[in-house]
Amino acid sequence: MKTRKDAPVDRGFLVGVIFFILGLGTLLPWNFFMTATMYFQDRLNTTEWSNGTVRSRKEYYFNNWMTLLSQLPLLVFTLLNSFMYHSIPEKVRITGSLILIFLLFVLTAVLVKIPVGNMDRFFSVTMATIWFINSFGAVLQGSLFGLVGLLPQKYSAVFMSGQGLAGTFATLAMLLSIYSEAGKEAAALGYFITPCVGTLLTLLSYLILPHLDFAQFYFNKRTTNYEVETNHELLSGKTIAPGNDKLNGDANGFLPNGNGALPHADTDPETDTDGSGQAFLSLESTDTRDKKLSVKQVFQKIWVMAFCVTFVFVVTLSVFPAITVDVTTLYAGTKWEVYFIPVCCFLVFNIMDWIGRTVTTVVQWPRKESRLFPALVVARVIFIPLVMLCNVRNHYFLPVLFPHDAAFAFIMLLFSLSSGYFVCLSMSYAPQLVEPKDAETAGALMMFFLALGLSLGAALSFPLRVLV
Protein backbone atom coordinates (compact mmCIF):
# COMPACT_ATOMS: atom_id res chain seq x y z
CA MET A 1 0.00 0.00 0.00
CA LYS A 2 1.28 3.44 -0.91
CA THR A 3 0.79 6.58 1.13
CA ARG A 4 -2.50 8.20 0.17
CA LYS A 5 -2.40 11.79 -1.03
CA ASP A 6 -5.22 12.77 1.31
CA ALA A 7 -3.56 11.19 4.38
CA PRO A 8 -2.40 13.42 7.25
CA VAL A 9 1.33 13.95 7.62
CA ASP A 10 3.23 11.57 9.89
CA ARG A 11 4.99 14.37 11.74
CA GLY A 12 8.52 13.47 12.73
CA PHE A 13 7.81 9.94 11.47
CA LEU A 14 6.36 9.36 14.94
CA VAL A 15 4.11 6.49 13.82
CA GLY A 16 7.13 4.84 12.25
CA VAL A 17 9.13 5.24 15.48
CA ILE A 18 6.28 3.75 17.49
CA PHE A 19 6.00 0.72 15.22
CA PHE A 20 9.77 0.28 15.44
CA ILE A 21 9.42 0.15 19.24
CA LEU A 22 6.44 -2.22 18.93
CA GLY A 23 8.49 -4.50 16.70
CA LEU A 24 11.31 -4.38 19.24
CA GLY A 25 8.91 -5.24 22.06
CA THR A 26 7.30 -8.22 20.33
CA LEU A 27 10.56 -10.20 20.13
CA LEU A 28 12.14 -9.14 23.41
CA PRO A 29 10.72 -12.19 25.28
CA TRP A 30 12.09 -14.75 22.81
CA ASN A 31 15.48 -13.08 22.48
CA PHE A 32 16.05 -12.55 26.18
CA PHE A 33 15.40 -16.20 26.94
CA MET A 34 17.45 -17.35 23.96
CA THR A 35 20.52 -15.27 24.83
CA ALA A 36 20.25 -16.31 28.50
CA THR A 37 21.00 -19.95 27.68
CA MET A 38 24.34 -19.80 29.52
CA TYR A 39 22.59 -18.59 32.70
CA PHE A 40 20.01 -21.38 32.57
CA GLN A 41 22.56 -24.06 31.68
CA ASP A 42 24.75 -22.87 34.54
CA ARG A 43 21.90 -23.27 37.03
CA LEU A 44 20.76 -26.59 35.58
CA ASN A 45 24.30 -28.00 35.61
CA THR A 46 24.87 -27.15 39.26
CA THR A 47 26.17 -30.22 41.07
CA GLU A 48 23.47 -31.81 43.20
CA TRP A 49 24.15 -33.69 46.41
CA SER A 50 22.09 -36.52 47.85
CA ASN A 51 22.94 -38.13 51.23
CA GLY A 52 26.48 -36.79 51.01
CA THR A 53 27.14 -38.11 47.53
CA VAL A 54 27.22 -36.30 44.20
CA ARG A 55 24.26 -37.07 42.01
CA SER A 56 24.90 -37.54 38.32
CA ARG A 57 24.09 -34.53 36.19
CA LYS A 58 21.08 -34.77 33.96
CA GLU A 59 21.19 -33.60 30.34
CA TYR A 60 18.20 -31.31 29.91
CA TYR A 61 18.78 -30.31 26.25
CA PHE A 62 17.73 -26.84 27.35
CA ASN A 63 18.36 -25.11 23.99
CA ASN A 64 16.26 -27.60 22.02
CA TRP A 65 13.37 -27.59 24.48
CA MET A 66 13.48 -23.82 24.88
CA THR A 67 13.28 -23.37 21.11
CA LEU A 68 10.46 -25.90 20.70
CA LEU A 69 8.38 -24.65 23.64
CA SER A 70 8.83 -21.09 22.41
CA GLN A 71 7.53 -21.84 18.93
CA LEU A 72 4.72 -24.35 19.53
CA PRO A 73 2.55 -21.89 21.50
CA LEU A 74 3.47 -19.24 18.94
CA LEU A 75 2.02 -21.52 16.24
CA VAL A 76 -1.13 -22.50 18.18
CA PHE A 77 -2.05 -19.03 19.40
CA THR A 78 -1.20 -17.37 16.10
CA LEU A 79 -3.61 -19.78 14.40
CA LEU A 80 -6.30 -18.95 16.95
CA ASN A 81 -5.61 -15.25 16.53
CA SER A 82 -5.95 -15.54 12.74
CA PHE A 83 -9.51 -16.84 13.04
CA MET A 84 -10.70 -15.19 16.25
CA TYR A 85 -9.20 -11.71 16.13
CA HIS A 86 -12.60 -10.26 15.18
CA SER A 87 -14.12 -11.63 18.41
CA ILE A 88 -11.74 -9.90 20.83
CA PRO A 89 -11.10 -6.15 20.56
CA GLU A 90 -7.66 -5.23 19.29
CA LYS A 91 -6.89 -3.09 22.34
CA VAL A 92 -7.70 -5.96 24.70
CA ARG A 93 -5.49 -8.38 22.75
CA ILE A 94 -2.47 -6.07 22.61
CA THR A 95 -2.58 -4.42 26.04
CA GLY A 96 -3.58 -7.66 27.76
CA SER A 97 -0.70 -9.57 26.16
CA LEU A 98 1.87 -6.91 27.09
CA ILE A 99 0.72 -6.78 30.71
CA LEU A 100 0.87 -10.58 31.11
CA ILE A 101 4.30 -10.76 29.44
CA PHE A 102 5.52 -8.11 31.86
CA LEU A 103 4.26 -10.08 34.86
CA LEU A 104 5.92 -13.30 33.64
CA PHE A 105 9.24 -11.50 33.21
CA VAL A 106 8.90 -10.19 36.76
CA LEU A 107 8.45 -13.82 37.88
CA THR A 108 11.59 -14.85 35.97
CA ALA A 109 13.57 -12.04 37.63
CA VAL A 110 12.28 -13.04 41.07
CA LEU A 111 13.34 -16.66 40.51
CA VAL A 112 16.93 -15.46 40.10
CA LYS A 113 16.95 -14.62 43.82
CA ILE A 114 15.14 -17.78 44.92
CA PRO A 115 17.27 -20.91 45.28
CA VAL A 116 15.65 -23.97 43.74
CA GLY A 117 17.16 -27.16 45.07
CA ASN A 118 15.37 -29.48 42.68
CA MET A 119 16.65 -28.87 39.14
CA ASP A 120 13.72 -30.73 37.59
CA ARG A 121 11.35 -28.28 39.28
CA PHE A 122 13.38 -25.26 38.13
CA PHE A 123 13.47 -26.65 34.58
CA SER A 124 9.69 -27.23 34.58
CA VAL A 125 8.91 -23.74 35.91
CA THR A 126 11.25 -22.17 33.32
CA MET A 127 9.68 -24.14 30.47
CA ALA A 128 6.16 -23.22 31.63
CA THR A 129 7.17 -19.54 31.76
CA ILE A 130 8.61 -19.76 28.26
CA TRP A 131 5.41 -21.42 27.02
CA PHE A 132 3.06 -18.77 28.43
CA ILE A 133 5.23 -15.80 27.50
CA ASN A 134 5.34 -16.97 23.89
CA SER A 135 1.60 -17.72 23.90
CA PHE A 136 0.85 -14.10 24.75
CA GLY A 137 3.63 -13.01 22.41
CA ALA A 138 1.91 -14.84 19.56
CA VAL A 139 -1.33 -12.93 20.11
CA LEU A 140 0.66 -9.69 20.35
CA GLN A 141 2.63 -10.29 17.14
CA GLY A 142 -0.38 -11.45 15.14
CA SER A 143 -2.38 -8.41 16.20
CA LEU A 144 0.43 -5.97 15.42
CA PHE A 145 1.22 -7.57 12.04
CA GLY A 146 -2.42 -7.15 11.10
CA LEU A 147 -2.37 -3.56 12.31
CA VAL A 148 0.81 -2.52 10.49
CA GLY A 149 -0.51 -4.19 7.32
CA LEU A 150 -3.05 -1.36 7.11
CA LEU A 151 -0.29 1.23 6.77
CA PRO A 152 1.95 1.96 3.75
CA GLN A 153 4.56 -0.73 3.00
CA LYS A 154 7.51 1.09 4.55
CA TYR A 155 5.90 0.81 7.99
CA SER A 156 5.90 -3.00 7.74
CA ALA A 157 9.62 -2.86 6.99
CA VAL A 158 10.20 -0.50 9.92
CA PHE A 159 8.19 -2.79 12.23
CA MET A 160 10.25 -5.83 11.22
CA SER A 161 13.43 -3.81 11.52
CA GLY A 162 12.48 -3.22 15.14
CA GLN A 163 11.98 -6.96 15.56
CA GLY A 164 15.44 -7.55 14.15
CA LEU A 165 16.98 -5.13 16.65
CA ALA A 166 15.38 -6.99 19.58
CA GLY A 167 18.01 -9.70 19.35
CA THR A 168 20.85 -7.19 19.23
CA PHE A 169 19.38 -5.40 22.24
CA ALA A 170 19.24 -8.65 24.22
CA THR A 171 22.76 -9.67 23.17
CA LEU A 172 24.24 -6.31 24.20
CA ALA A 173 22.52 -6.65 27.57
CA MET A 174 24.12 -10.07 27.99
CA LEU A 175 27.58 -8.81 26.99
CA LEU A 176 27.24 -5.93 29.43
CA SER A 177 26.39 -8.31 32.25
CA ILE A 178 29.48 -10.42 31.39
CA TYR A 179 31.77 -7.39 31.08
CA SER A 180 30.58 -5.90 34.38
CA GLU A 181 32.04 -8.94 36.15
CA ALA A 182 29.29 -8.61 38.73
CA GLY A 183 28.18 -11.68 40.61
CA LYS A 184 26.23 -14.16 38.53
CA GLU A 185 23.09 -13.56 40.52
CA ALA A 186 23.27 -9.75 40.28
CA ALA A 187 24.06 -9.91 36.54
CA ALA A 188 21.14 -12.25 35.86
CA LEU A 189 18.76 -10.07 37.90
CA GLY A 190 19.74 -6.94 35.98
CA TYR A 191 19.48 -8.87 32.72
CA PHE A 192 15.85 -9.94 33.32
CA ILE A 193 14.78 -6.56 34.68
CA THR A 194 15.74 -5.02 31.30
CA PRO A 195 12.89 -6.69 29.30
CA CYS A 196 10.46 -5.65 32.05
CA VAL A 197 11.32 -2.02 31.31
CA GLY A 198 11.24 -2.69 27.55
CA THR A 199 7.78 -4.25 27.76
CA LEU A 200 6.42 -1.25 29.67
CA LEU A 201 7.87 1.08 27.02
CA THR A 202 6.18 -1.00 24.32
CA LEU A 203 2.83 -0.73 26.10
CA LEU A 204 3.19 3.04 26.46
CA SER A 205 4.04 3.39 22.76
CA TYR A 206 0.94 1.46 21.72
CA LEU A 207 -1.29 3.63 23.92
CA ILE A 208 -0.03 6.74 22.10
CA LEU A 209 -1.19 5.50 18.66
CA PRO A 210 -4.91 6.42 19.05
CA HIS A 211 -3.90 10.06 19.48
CA LEU A 212 -2.01 10.27 16.15
CA ASP A 213 -4.06 11.38 13.14
CA PHE A 214 -1.86 9.58 10.59
CA ALA A 215 -2.33 6.19 12.25
CA GLN A 216 -6.06 6.58 12.79
CA PHE A 217 -6.59 7.67 9.16
CA TYR A 218 -5.44 4.24 7.96
CA PHE A 219 -6.85 2.19 10.84
CA ASN A 220 -10.33 3.61 10.31
CA LYS A 221 -10.33 2.32 6.72
CA ARG A 222 -11.20 -1.08 8.17
CA THR A 223 -14.66 0.09 9.13
CA THR A 224 -17.19 2.60 7.91
CA ASN A 225 -14.78 5.07 6.39
CA TYR A 226 -14.09 2.69 3.50
CA GLU A 227 -17.76 2.58 2.53
CA VAL A 228 -18.37 6.27 3.20
CA GLU A 229 -15.44 7.25 0.97
CA THR A 230 -16.61 4.89 -1.80
CA ASN A 231 -20.16 6.22 -1.74
CA HIS A 232 -18.93 9.82 -1.61
CA GLU A 233 -16.80 9.39 -4.71
CA LEU A 234 -19.63 7.63 -6.56
CA LEU A 235 -22.08 10.38 -5.71
CA SER A 236 -19.57 12.97 -6.87
CA GLY A 237 -19.59 11.44 -10.34
CA LYS A 238 -16.81 8.85 -10.17
CA THR A 239 -17.30 5.25 -11.22
CA ILE A 240 -15.44 2.00 -11.06
CA ALA A 241 -13.62 1.04 -14.21
CA PRO A 242 -13.75 -2.66 -15.14
CA GLY A 243 -10.67 -4.53 -13.92
CA ASN A 244 -9.52 -1.60 -11.80
CA ASP A 245 -9.63 -1.60 -8.01
CA LYS A 246 -9.52 2.19 -7.83
CA LEU A 247 -12.32 4.63 -8.41
CA ASN A 248 -11.92 6.36 -11.73
CA GLY A 249 -13.96 8.33 -14.23
CA ASP A 250 -13.74 10.59 -17.25
CA ALA A 251 -14.45 14.30 -17.27
CA ASN A 252 -18.20 13.66 -17.20
CA GLY A 253 -18.01 11.07 -14.44
CA PHE A 254 -19.00 8.16 -16.72
CA LEU A 255 -17.28 5.02 -17.88
CA PRO A 256 -15.78 5.49 -21.35
CA ASN A 257 -17.75 3.43 -23.87
CA GLY A 258 -17.69 5.83 -26.80
CA ASN A 259 -20.42 8.21 -25.70
CA GLY A 260 -19.97 8.32 -21.93
CA ALA A 261 -22.83 5.92 -21.21
CA LEU A 262 -22.67 3.15 -18.67
CA PRO A 263 -23.09 -0.04 -20.68
CA HIS A 264 -24.43 -2.16 -17.80
CA ALA A 265 -26.04 0.43 -15.53
CA ASP A 266 -29.79 0.46 -15.08
CA THR A 267 -31.35 3.71 -16.26
CA ASP A 268 -33.39 5.44 -13.62
CA PRO A 269 -35.94 7.98 -14.84
CA GLU A 270 -35.05 10.21 -11.92
CA THR A 271 -31.36 10.33 -12.86
CA ASP A 272 -31.75 10.10 -16.62
CA THR A 273 -32.52 13.77 -16.95
CA ASP A 274 -31.58 14.23 -20.60
CA GLY A 275 -32.98 10.97 -21.98
CA SER A 276 -29.58 9.91 -23.27
CA GLY A 277 -29.56 6.70 -21.31
CA GLN A 278 -26.72 7.91 -19.10
CA ALA A 279 -26.88 7.03 -15.42
CA PHE A 280 -24.67 6.77 -12.43
CA LEU A 281 -23.59 3.35 -11.24
CA SER A 282 -25.91 2.09 -8.54
CA LEU A 283 -24.46 2.15 -5.06
CA GLU A 284 -25.69 -1.41 -4.61
CA SER A 285 -23.05 -2.61 -7.11
CA THR A 286 -20.34 -1.80 -4.57
CA ASP A 287 -21.64 -4.22 -1.94
CA THR A 288 -19.40 -7.07 -3.08
CA ARG A 289 -16.40 -4.70 -3.26
CA ASP A 290 -16.81 -3.65 0.37
CA LYS A 291 -17.11 -7.23 1.63
CA LYS A 292 -13.90 -8.76 2.97
CA LEU A 293 -12.54 -11.95 1.45
CA SER A 294 -12.56 -15.18 3.43
CA VAL A 295 -9.37 -16.50 5.01
CA LYS A 296 -9.16 -19.15 2.27
CA GLN A 297 -9.49 -16.56 -0.49
CA VAL A 298 -6.80 -14.37 1.07
CA PHE A 299 -4.50 -17.39 1.40
CA GLN A 300 -4.93 -18.19 -2.30
CA LYS A 301 -3.53 -14.74 -3.09
CA ILE A 302 -0.57 -14.83 -0.70
CA TRP A 303 0.41 -18.53 -0.62
CA VAL A 304 3.82 -17.97 -2.26
CA MET A 305 4.80 -15.44 0.41
CA ALA A 306 3.42 -17.78 3.09
CA PHE A 307 5.65 -20.58 1.78
CA CYS A 308 8.68 -18.30 1.67
CA VAL A 309 8.39 -17.04 5.26
CA THR A 310 7.78 -20.62 6.48
CA PHE A 311 10.80 -22.06 4.68
CA VAL A 312 13.13 -19.26 5.78
CA PHE A 313 12.39 -19.98 9.43
CA VAL A 314 12.51 -23.76 9.01
CA VAL A 315 16.13 -23.39 7.87
CA THR A 316 16.99 -20.74 10.47
CA LEU A 317 15.51 -22.40 13.56
CA SER A 318 16.76 -25.87 12.63
CA VAL A 319 20.31 -24.86 13.56
CA PHE A 320 19.96 -21.58 15.49
CA PRO A 321 20.38 -21.58 18.42
CA ALA A 322 20.21 -25.35 19.12
CA ILE A 323 23.41 -26.18 17.19
CA THR A 324 25.14 -22.82 16.84
CA VAL A 325 25.45 -22.34 20.62
CA ASP A 326 27.40 -25.61 20.84
CA VAL A 327 30.13 -24.44 18.45
CA THR A 328 33.40 -24.05 20.37
CA THR A 329 36.32 -21.71 19.86
CA LEU A 330 39.83 -22.81 18.97
CA TYR A 331 41.10 -20.63 21.83
CA ALA A 332 39.73 -22.60 24.76
CA GLY A 333 40.95 -21.53 28.17
CA THR A 334 41.31 -17.87 27.22
CA LYS A 335 39.06 -14.94 28.14
CA TRP A 336 37.78 -14.97 24.55
CA GLU A 337 36.05 -18.28 25.28
CA VAL A 338 33.50 -16.47 27.46
CA TYR A 339 32.71 -13.99 24.68
CA PHE A 340 32.87 -16.39 21.71
CA ILE A 341 29.21 -17.52 21.61
CA PRO A 342 27.74 -14.14 22.67
CA VAL A 343 29.72 -12.38 19.91
CA CYS A 344 30.11 -14.86 17.03
CA CYS A 345 26.72 -16.51 17.46
CA PHE A 346 24.22 -14.07 18.97
CA LEU A 347 25.69 -10.65 18.20
CA VAL A 348 26.64 -11.47 14.60
CA PHE A 349 23.27 -13.13 13.97
CA ASN A 350 21.17 -10.35 15.46
CA ILE A 351 23.06 -7.44 13.90
CA MET A 352 23.08 -9.00 10.43
CA ASP A 353 19.45 -10.10 10.74
CA TRP A 354 18.53 -6.52 11.63
CA ILE A 355 20.57 -5.15 8.71
CA GLY A 356 18.88 -7.63 6.38
CA ARG A 357 15.45 -6.45 7.51
CA THR A 358 16.40 -2.77 7.35
CA VAL A 359 17.83 -3.00 3.83
CA THR A 360 14.34 -3.82 2.53
CA THR A 361 13.29 -0.23 3.22
CA VAL A 362 15.44 0.85 0.26
CA VAL A 363 15.89 -2.35 -1.79
CA GLN A 364 13.17 -4.84 -2.72
CA TRP A 365 14.73 -7.51 -4.92
CA PRO A 366 13.59 -9.86 -6.31
CA ARG A 367 10.13 -8.43 -6.93
CA LYS A 368 7.12 -10.18 -5.48
CA GLU A 369 6.10 -11.53 -8.92
CA SER A 370 9.53 -13.04 -9.64
CA ARG A 371 10.07 -16.81 -9.52
CA LEU A 372 13.62 -16.09 -8.42
CA PHE A 373 12.36 -15.00 -5.01
CA PRO A 374 11.13 -18.44 -3.79
CA ALA A 375 14.14 -20.07 -5.53
CA LEU A 376 16.59 -18.01 -3.46
CA VAL A 377 14.63 -18.76 -0.30
CA VAL A 378 14.91 -22.52 -0.94
CA ALA A 379 18.63 -22.16 -1.70
CA ARG A 380 19.23 -21.14 1.94
CA VAL A 381 19.01 -24.83 2.88
CA ILE A 382 22.77 -24.99 2.19
CA PHE A 383 23.37 -23.26 5.54
CA ILE A 384 22.20 -26.34 7.49
CA PRO A 385 25.18 -28.57 6.53
CA LEU A 386 27.56 -25.59 6.67
CA VAL A 387 26.74 -24.95 10.34
CA MET A 388 26.77 -28.66 11.21
CA LEU A 389 30.31 -28.96 9.79
CA CYS A 390 31.67 -26.27 12.12
CA ASN A 391 33.53 -27.05 15.35
CA VAL A 392 30.45 -28.29 17.24
CA ARG A 393 30.96 -29.63 20.76
CA ASN A 394 30.44 -33.39 21.17
CA HIS A 395 30.21 -34.19 17.46
CA TYR A 396 30.08 -37.91 16.69
CA PHE A 397 29.05 -38.47 13.09
CA LEU A 398 30.15 -35.46 11.05
CA PRO A 399 33.70 -34.20 10.49
CA VAL A 400 34.77 -30.65 11.33
CA LEU A 401 35.46 -28.91 8.01
CA PHE A 402 35.29 -25.34 9.36
CA PRO A 403 37.19 -25.35 12.67
CA HIS A 404 38.29 -21.71 12.75
CA ASP A 405 36.29 -19.05 14.60
CA ALA A 406 36.38 -16.73 11.57
CA ALA A 407 34.81 -19.40 9.33
CA PHE A 408 31.93 -19.85 11.77
CA ALA A 409 31.44 -16.09 12.08
CA PHE A 410 31.37 -15.68 8.27
CA ILE A 411 28.80 -18.47 7.86
CA MET A 412 26.67 -16.86 10.59
CA LEU A 413 26.96 -13.50 8.83
CA LEU A 414 25.55 -14.76 5.52
CA PHE A 415 23.06 -17.04 7.29
CA SER A 416 21.53 -14.24 9.36
CA LEU A 417 21.67 -11.52 6.69
CA SER A 418 19.71 -13.67 4.23
CA SER A 419 17.26 -14.73 6.95
CA GLY A 420 16.33 -11.16 7.92
CA TYR A 421 16.17 -9.96 4.31
CA PHE A 422 13.90 -12.69 2.95
CA VAL A 423 11.63 -12.74 5.99
CA CYS A 424 11.07 -9.00 5.82
CA LEU A 425 10.42 -9.08 2.06
CA SER A 426 7.89 -11.90 2.46
CA MET A 427 6.02 -10.14 5.26
CA SER A 428 6.07 -6.80 3.39
CA TYR A 429 4.96 -8.24 0.05
CA ALA A 430 1.96 -10.23 1.36
CA PRO A 431 -0.35 -7.26 2.21
CA GLN A 432 0.38 -5.81 -1.25
CA LEU A 433 -1.18 -8.86 -2.92
CA VAL A 434 -4.65 -8.13 -1.51
CA GLU A 435 -7.01 -5.18 -1.25
CA PRO A 436 -6.50 -2.76 1.67
CA LYS A 437 -9.66 -4.12 3.30
CA ASP A 438 -8.05 -7.60 3.43
CA ALA A 439 -4.59 -6.46 4.54
CA GLU A 440 -5.26 -7.23 8.21
CA THR A 441 -6.31 -10.80 7.39
CA ALA A 442 -3.22 -11.23 5.21
CA GLY A 443 -1.00 -9.96 8.03
CA ALA A 444 -2.55 -12.35 10.56
CA LEU A 445 -2.19 -15.28 8.15
CA MET A 446 1.45 -14.47 7.45
CA MET A 447 2.08 -14.40 11.18
CA PHE A 448 0.65 -17.92 11.40
CA PHE A 449 2.96 -19.20 8.66
CA LEU A 450 5.89 -17.41 10.27
CA ALA A 451 5.09 -19.29 13.48
CA LEU A 452 4.68 -22.54 11.51
CA GLY A 453 8.19 -22.13 10.12
CA LEU A 454 9.57 -21.44 13.59
CA SER A 455 7.87 -24.53 15.03
CA LEU A 456 8.94 -26.85 12.22
CA GLY A 457 12.49 -25.54 12.44
CA ALA A 458 12.53 -26.04 16.24
CA ALA A 459 11.28 -29.62 15.84
CA LEU A 460 13.88 -30.31 13.14
CA SER A 461 16.66 -29.13 15.46
CA PHE A 462 16.34 -32.31 17.58
CA PRO A 463 17.30 -34.87 14.88
CA LEU A 464 19.87 -32.49 13.36
CA ARG A 465 21.63 -32.11 16.72
CA VAL A 466 21.78 -35.90 17.06
CA LEU A 467 23.22 -36.24 13.54
CA VAL A 468 26.16 -33.98 14.40
Automatic annotation (TrEMBL):
Main location per the UniProt record: membrane
The protein's name in its UniProt record: Equilibrative nucleoside transporter 2
Family per similarity comment: Belongs to the SLC29A/ENT transporter (TC 2.A.57) family.
Membrane topology: Multi-pass membrane protein
Record localization: Basolateral cell membrane
Entry's transmembrane regions: 12-40, 60-80, 92-116, 128-151, 158-180, 186-209, 302-324, 336-352, 372-394, 406-430, 442-462
GO biological process: adenine transport; guanine transport; hypoxanthine transport; thymine transport
